[in-house]
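Progress note, sequence design subtask.
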């Protein structure tokens, strides 16, 4: 007998249409178009199926952790904790958004995507040897709707009905939004999002509080389990003997090391020295200065340390100084635009980053999703209904970042002095005047704010930006706090300006509302750090998940990107067009790098 999940959303259920019959069982789902891999594929295209097993991969990382539970709001989970848990389906990182069998070996999707049915692989086992069942899946949905991260609660609220026709089968039916535009109807991404829901053991959590942080190892079904924990300092994982999924096509050639070790350091420079001393095997380098000057030594010169720049085609994080528009100081778009004109970012890029980074001019940089030129085709179609609510220049002028012409010489229309003159004009239009060297409003209140940081390494850029505001009469104070305080203040939106980022995949969807939607702006812990409340942004973000073709998706994302850019919600910083990775030569990688970049899960120890 089917077991419905309790406390269903009655209103959403009433809105849901009668689902069409599910299609035939298949081996995976693609968000748009067809799957790249056939039903009989034996391994993902970016692995070495013959990679040897054994050895240890160590990483020297920065920060701290206080929990082994990555699926709730509370706490800072340990790195690698995701290797303990599994989902119904697994991603192929060489396709924009395609999923193949993992805990579920077959999936049925209704023609209109109003429902999805997963058939759990009869071999799937928890680490204690007990089978993974439909009850575990229903339990996982229930507890994550109650205690999960805000984005998961947002997604899973769209499940109108969850049932288990038998112990190895689970079916989800989805509610439809009102059909008042392209964003209405069934959210086509939901079958894939349910495929990526982390599955927990109902038996393990009986008598335990799912919503609390814990340092007790949690029962999982994944390739690794926790072997040792030194809270905040070190965590070690060991490969599970007889791991049930080791021969699955989505697991062959992966998770090759017997042990994974993460050693935490408070300072990244210390972590780099630990790597160079042989206390780490691989390191992703995000600091261009360290990449340019920090690796020299005997191990690099004699080839024991190998440095590589590996290109990728994924969107890089959109990193910037994000203004909190909940603060009246940043409510006016003219003020936000003016702040972006004050600094010489050409000089910052050359002097602080050795010219190795690219200035970010999109919320989806380094990808085909970035808006470019003037809107046309699918993008223009997405923007047309909102023409009267958007700046006219958005349709007639390509978005461009202020150009300083290479330095402080000024004089030209693209120089820094010209930019600052334009910035003062915008500030005056918004009601601000410079009096005695101080920018003040009509009441005499000075324009002053705090820039909140979480890492001392961010101070160079923030301090240079703050100094660039002084000629405008603006006082910006830079404050760096520890990771726990930073996270708490970020979650409460207790900041004026923050150095942070938004990250997206090549197939954006529901999470865009979590990043930029009006509802998320008032939801503590969401990623709408800027406090964006714009009906046009809401409509475009909702429409993305409803796209039925890749062309529609790209056009709608570019439209959202363009509207966000013209909203000037952040002062964009920089991104890297390549992955910079250093590794000791005993660590090897496959010849093929997937679309999303290198995957350490596929590497092996000599």
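Output:
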């Amino acid at each position: 007998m089917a077991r419905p999940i309790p406390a269903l959303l009655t209103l959403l259920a009433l809105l849901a249409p009668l689902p069409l019959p599910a299609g035939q069982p298949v081996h995976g789902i693609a968000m748009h178009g067809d799957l790249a891999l056939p039903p009989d594929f034996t391994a993902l295209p970016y692995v070495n199926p013959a990679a040897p097993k054994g050895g240890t991969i160590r990483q020297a990382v920065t920060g701290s952790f206080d929990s082994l539970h990555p699926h709730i709001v509370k706490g800072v989970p340990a790195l690698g904790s995701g290797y303990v848990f599994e989902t119904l389906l697994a991603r192929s990182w060489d396709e924009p958004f395609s999923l193949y069998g993992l805990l579920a070996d077959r999936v049925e999707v209704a023609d209109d995507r109003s429902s999805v049915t997963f058939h759990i692989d009869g071999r799937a086992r928890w680490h204690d040897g007990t089978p993974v069942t439909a009850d575990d899946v229903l339990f996982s949905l229930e507890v994550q709707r109650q205690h999960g991260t805000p984005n998961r609660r947002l997604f899973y609220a769209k499940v109108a009905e969850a049932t288990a026709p038998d112990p190895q089968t689970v079916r989800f039916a989805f509610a439809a939004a009102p059909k008042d535009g392209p964003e209405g109807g069934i959210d086509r991404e939901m079958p894939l999002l349910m495929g990526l829901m982390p599955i927990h053991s109902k038996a393990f959590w009986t008598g335990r509080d799912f919503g609390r942080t814990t340092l007790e190892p949690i029962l999982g079904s994944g390739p690794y389990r926790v072997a040792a924990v030194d809270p905040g300092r070190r965590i070690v994982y060991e490969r599970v003997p007889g791991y049930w999924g080791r021969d699955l096509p989505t697991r062959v050639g992966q998770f090759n090391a017997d042990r994974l070790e993460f050693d935490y350091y408070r300072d990244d420079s210390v972590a780099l020295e630990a790597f160079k001393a042989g206390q780490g095997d691989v390191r992703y380098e995000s600091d261009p200065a360290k990449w340019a000057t920090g690796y020299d030594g005997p191990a690099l010169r004699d080839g024991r340390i190998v440095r590589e720049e590996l290109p990728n085609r994924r969107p890089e994080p959109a990193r910037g100084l994000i203004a909190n528009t909940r603060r009246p100081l940043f409510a006016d778009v003219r003020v936000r635009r003016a702040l972006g004109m004050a600094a010489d970012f050409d000089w910052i890029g050359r002097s602080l980053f050795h010219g190795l980074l690219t200035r970010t001019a999109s919320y989806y940089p380094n990808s085909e999703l970035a808006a470019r030129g003037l809107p046309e085709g699918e993008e223009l179609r997405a923007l047309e209904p909102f023409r009267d609510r958007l700046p006219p220049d958005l349709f007639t002028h390509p978005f461009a970042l202020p150009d300083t012409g290479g330095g402080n010489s000024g004089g030209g229309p693209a120089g820094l002095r010209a930019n600052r003159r334009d910035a003062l004009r915008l500030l005056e239009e918004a009601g601000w005047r410079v009096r005695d060297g101080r920018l003040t409003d009509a009441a005499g209140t000075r324009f002053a704010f705090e820039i909140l940081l979480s890492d001392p390494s961010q101070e160079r850029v923030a301090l240079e930006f703050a100094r660039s505001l002084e000629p405008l009469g603006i006082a910006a104070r830079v404050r760096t706090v520890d990771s726990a305080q930073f996270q708490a203040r970020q979650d409460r939106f207790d900041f004026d300006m923050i150095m942070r980022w938004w990250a997206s995949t090549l197939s954006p969807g529901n999470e865009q509302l979590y990043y930029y939607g009006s509802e998320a702006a008032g939801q503590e812990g969401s990623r709408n750090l800027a406090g964006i409340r714009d009906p046009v942004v809401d409509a475009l973000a909702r429409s993305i998940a409803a796209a039925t073709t890749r062309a529609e998706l790209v056009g709608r994302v570019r439209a959202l990107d363009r509207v966000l850019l013209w909203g000037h919600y952040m002062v964009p910083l920089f991104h890297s067009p390549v992955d910079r990775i250093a590794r000791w030569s005993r660590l090897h990688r496959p010849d093929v790098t997937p679309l999303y970049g290198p995957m350490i899960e596929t590497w092996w120890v000599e």
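The two ends are 52 Å apart (CA to CA). Work on this subtask will continue into the next period as scheduled.
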